[in-house]
Amino acid sequence: MGGLDRTVGQSNLRVVTETGWLSTLAVDTPDKLAERLGEHAYLADEGLATACFLALRMHRPLFLEGEAGVGKTSLATALADVLDAPLIRLQCYEGLDATQALYDWDFPRQLLHLRAAEAAGVTDVQRIEAELYDRRFLVARPLLQALETTPSVLLIDEVDRADDEFEAFLLEVLSDFTISVPELGTIRAEVPPVVVVTSNRTREVHDALKRRCLYHWLEHPSFEREVAIIGRRLPDATQRLAEQVARAAQALRAEDLLKPPGVAESLDWTEALVALGARELDPDLAAVTLGAVLKYREDQERARGRGLAAFVGPDGG
Amino acid sequence: MYLLRDATATMVGFARTLRAAGVDAGPERVQAMLAALDHLDVLDVHDVYWAGRLTLCGSEDDISRYDQAFAAYFTGERPPPMRSRPPAVQIVQQVASPDGQGDTGEGEETETQALATASDVEVLRERDVTHLSSVERDEVRRLLALLDTGRAMRRSRRFAAAHHGRLDPGRTVRATLRRGGETSRLYHRAHRQRPRRVVLLVDISGSMAPYADALLRLAHAVVRSQPRRTEVFSIGTRLTRLTPELRHRDAETAMAAASHAIPDWSGGTRLGEELKEFLDRWGQRGMARGGIVVIASDGWERGDAMLLGEQMVRLHRLAHRVVWANPHKAQPGYQPLTAGMQAALPSIDDFVEGHSLGSLEYLAGVICRA
Fold first, then answer.
1. Is the CATH number of domain B198-369 3.40.50.410?
2. Do A63 and A197 contact (CB within 8 A), yes or no?
C-alpha cells in the first residue's frame, strides 16, 4: 500500500520537475541562481547557491544550520523574492501542535452556521452536517497554507525548538506534500512549495527528517563577502565604513566571546553608525555603539578590556 | 551512458569510504546524492563536492570528516590516522549472574557465592565501588541497570484537559456542537506537566577512572528512563556526546558503544575548557536552559580554575539546578580544597557523593526531585 502511494507521489514529482521553477526563471546553473539572489541583495557563496539550486530542482527541503545571524532566515526571504512567491513562515516553539501548524476548524463560525440554519428552519440533518465540515470552515495554518498556495516559499524557522513529536508529522508533510483532513479528504500540493528549515542546534533534530532534506552548514562569510553584503544592504554606508565594520566583526569573531557577532549584527552596527552620520569607524564611535554588535555584558567588557582600538584600528589593520 | 555508469560506481565507492570515516551515509542519502548529481556537472569537482556534502552529511561534525574523506578519495591525500588505541578501561565483561551459583566458573574463589540476600545488598550499597570484588561489582552493575530514576517535572506551555483551571473554549464549543447547539457544561484546561531536561557531564579522566564505569551506568539508567530528555557527555581532555550510544536498552551494549566512542579515557582534565565548549555548543542554545545539569567529577582541574569558576557561574544562570557529584567527598575528612572545586562551589545547588551504589541511588533521587 505504502509502495503504491510512493510511486504515485514520484510520478507526480516528475511532472512538476518538468514544469518546475527554474525553467521559468531561466536558471540552469547554481551560479545563475546566485546572480538572481544577488539582485535581491542576498549574496550566496558557491555552496549555498548549489544547495538552493538543488532544493529547487529536486523539490527537497533545505535544512540550514549555523550560528545565529549568518543569514538562515533571510535566505528564505530572498528566495521568495527571486521566485516572486509569498513567504509563509512557521515559527516553531515548544508545544507547537497540529492545530497551530496545519489546520483548525473554525468552531465559532460553525456554531453560528448551525444557529442560522436552525433559525431558517432547516431540518435536513444530513445537509447541515455536510455543510459544517466545508472547506470554508477550515482555518489554514502555515503548512496547509503553503500547500494550497502555488508558488510559495515555506520557512520552518528554528525547528529545534518544537518537540520531537512535531518532527514526526512534519516529516509526513514534507515527504509527499499532502495533508489529510479526516472530515474533508486529502489536500495535495499542486506544486510542492520551496521549503527552508532552519535549526540552531539546541537539540539534535531527528535523522529521518534530515535525510529528507539537503543539509547545509552556514559559515560566517569571508571578509570580502561581508563587505559586499554590507554595501549591498546598506547603500548609505561608505565603502570605508563597511570595510572597517567587517574587519572589526571578523576580529571579534576570532575573540573568545559568548555570542560572536553574525552578519545580522554587522548590519545592525553599520546601520547604527550610518544613523549617527559616521563616515568611518573610530574607537569612540565604537564605544557608544557597541550594544548593536555585542549583546552580552561579559562580551562588551571583554572587548573593552582588550581595547576597542585593537578592533577598529585607524589604519584598518 | 558509459560515463554515467562509471560515475555512479565512483560515487558509491566514495560513500563507502565516507561510512568508514564515521559518517552515516546510508542508501537513502547515496540515492539523493546521485539524484543531485543529475542536476549538476559530474566532471566539475566543485559540483561533485557540494552534491555529496549537501546530501551525505547530516551535522556539523560530519563536515570535517567529509572534507577529509573527499580529499583522500578524489585527490589521493592520506587522511590522518584514525584513533586505534583501545579504550584504557575495559568495560564489557561477562556478567556473572548473582543467583546462578554454578556458572561463576571453576577458578573463582568461594566468597563469590553469597550475594543474594537483602542484608548483603545493604552492605554492598555503602561500599565504595573501587573496593569491590569482581562478583560484587557485577552485582552493583546489575542493580544499577535496574535502577528506575524518576523524572523531574516542570510546567509546560501546552494545555491539557483538567477538572478545574481556565475555561477551554475549543472543547466547550465542540461539545455544544455535538449537542446541537446546547451548552450543557463548561470544560476546563490547565497547563501540562513535562519532564525537565537532564544533562550529565561525566569526568572520565585518570583520577576519576575507577568511578567512570559506575557513573556511566547511572547515566545509562537515566537515559533509559527518559531517552528524549536526557543528554550525556564525557569530559576529560575532550567533550564527547554519548547520548546516542547510551540510548541502547541493554546496559552492556550501551557501555561498549560508549567506551568505544570516548577518545580520551584516563587522560587529564580540562574542566573549564570542556564546560565552556559544552555551553558554547549546546548549553546556551537551549540544552542547559531550565534543565538539571549534573557534573560528576573530582574537580581536579589541570587548566585554569578561574575559567572553570566563570563557566560554572554561566551554567548556573542557564540551568534550573546544578548538581555536582564528587566520589572523593565520601572520604572521611574530605574538604573541597582543590582549586577546581573551590572555584565551582559557589555555583552548585547540590553537592553530593557518588562513590557507592547507595550514593548513586541518592544522586538519582536528587535528579528527579530537583
1. yes
2. yes
CB contact under 8 A, A110 and B228: no
* A69-106 confidence digits (pLDDT tens): 888 999 999 999 999 999 999 999 888 888 889 999 88
Does the structure show a pLDDT above 50 at A9?
Answer: no
Whether A51 and chain B come into contact, CB under 8 Å, resolves to: yes
Locate the domains of chain B by residue range: 2-75, 157-194, 198-369
Task: Assign A62 a pLDDT band (cuts: 50, 70, 90).
Answer: very high
- Closest-CA residue in chain B for A68? B285
For position A69, what pLDDT does the model report?
85
- Min CA distance, B239 vs chain A (Å)? 16
| Domain residue spans of chain A | 2-93+142-177+188-218, 223-311
Cβ burial of B170 (10 Å; 0-12, 13-18, 19+) is: middle
| ipTM metric | 0.80
Taking the CA of residue A206 and the nearest CA in chain B, the distance in Å comes to 10
Q: Which CATH architecture has domain A2-93+142-177+188-218?
A: 3-Layer(aba) Sandwich (3.40)
C-alpha cell at B329: 567527598
Q: What are the cell numbers at A259?
A: 555570542
Rounded to whole angstroms, how far apart are CA atoms B315 and A150? 46
pLDDT higher than 60, residue B92 = no
Please give the model's pTM, rounded to 2 decimal places.
0.69
Give the nearest partner residue to A95 out of B39, B55, B158, using CB atoms: B158
Q: Is the peptide bond before A151 cis (omega within 30 degrees of 0)?
A: yes
Q: Please tell me whether residue A278 adopts helix, strand or coil conformation.
A: coil
Q: Evaluate the omega torsion of the peptide bond into residue B210 and state whether it is cis, within 30 degrees of 0.
A: no
Alpha-carbon gap, residue B156 to B153, rounded angstroms: 9
Nearest-CA distance from A256 to chain B in Å? 10
Q: What is the largest CA-CA distance in chain B?
A: 81
Residue B198 pLDDT more than 70? Answer: yes
